[in-house]
């Protein structure tokens, strides 16, 4: 009897399943209409709600602008929020009444603390469940992201709004940092062809997980972009979500800072992952177009960190392109710190024109025609093996890196040349002129850093532009030293073959050394040492004795009117020049004095007649209150006989003694 009862139950279950299938077909065709009270209709309604919920996140085929507006609007998302958890935290929605019992400050503050604590618990539970099993609980990540869209009409909510936004944003950031893979996920559109093939169950599950992860990552980036855009004007912002809740400007800057920190952390920790272009674009726009110094400093710091840690060069190329485009669109009205981020790039080698060797196709075809079929097949196999060996030796990655670096430098130089060729004659506004002068400093610093990588075709134009800037007296001493450094880096490298007379630049350096004093910045002094080293010490065979003596005399005069560290570094520089030019001991020996009168005010060092003078400045420095300066001046006067003092370069001496200037006399 028991067996018969079981068999009858199985038959009934099978018949119910068959009837349900038939009913499904009839309902789909529209031949049958069911009552709303039936359990079948209720299940269908719940399925439709779930489909409506999921369709909100899967609108990849629609226009991007419409999708952004729909996903950003908070009112469209309110029905999809996890209401049970939010009801526990905030309670039911209600309008605020001034005569309510909860209107007192003490009650609102206590409520705020309770609600923040409850939110911490709920966010912590969601984050731990997702991190423990990300493949199973990836859909719970929607709930965590959508908590950023909730708003209420109570004072306690408004008081705790920024704290909760920060809490949810950083918690979601940590979840993504933990579950993002170490590879770039292929988008679902590119996998459309492969979807028709029969795949394993594990592969399908992995693809579904990756697709949902990328969609939720995109949703999170859009929420962060909404946080960042709240500091813009209300008319230009895409969403009014934060303007309705937080009308204060300082509070909006705090929210934007949270969003920018999350975007920066995502870019720096996972630069290989999807949608990095959108993150880079938002960070660059904040660095270039934002008036808030705190946010622009943070954005520029992120870009400089990205340039330093990027070894391949592909991410840096995207960031440099976006920055160059933003600078061009802003009509070069840019903060100098944005241009100074380019100095963090580590570029040592690029592909120059004429360097690549192309194969002669006629020779290749001739060789192939002489080969038999077997030899051709063997040749193909050998080429494949050689390419695989190149991949194992990482030569292919090196080639790509050089190509990326070449393109990066092209973008940087285009930006620099546009700024340098900006015509100030047609500009009457003094503010624009002041900003242009400030922007010149990082441009000239960048040119002096990357000058050895400039193509030889641009040498004449660059030298002409730099000479024109120095001639018009637009530059200060720091900028002028960088111009001179760039010119002589060009002339000592590939530009040595060019017919360019550097005499005018020697005259400019001779005149600008006089302005080095107590008030001169440390960077300017270091650049001056580099200029003298590249123009006199390294070009000792191409410079006349009269010019060398004039520079030694000018440096000794400047050493009398400077700090201890600067004076000692200048003395070491004089010692290096005199070691390379043995005939310069005329300035020490009083018996060997030249004819004529020394002209210290002459602009050209060739006509200053420095051989008619002596280094009487060393006698004054010999009585200096610091022992190291006394010893060094005596060392030069004795004919550079004791070599123990000349172990460091002038820049190393200056860097090691900078802190002594702040101490009392030693």
From TrEMBL:
It comes from the Eukaryota. Belongs to the CBF/MAK21 family. It is found in: Nucleus, Nucleolus. InterPro entries: ARM-type_fold, CCAAT-binding_factor, Noc3_N, Nucleolar_cplx-assoc_3. Residues 481-632 form the CCAAT-binding factor domain. The keyword Coiled coil applies. One of its GO terms (cellular component) is nucleolus. Keywords: Coiled coil, Nucleus. Residues 1-72 are annotated as: Disordered. Residues 1-14, 23-34 have a biased composition (Basic residues). It holds the Pfam family CBF. It comes from Dinothrombium tinctorium. This is NOC3-like protein. Residues 119-220 form the Nucleolar complex-associated protein 3 N-terminal domain. GO terms for biological process: DNA replication initiation. GO terms for molecular function: chromatin binding. The keyword Coiled coil applies.
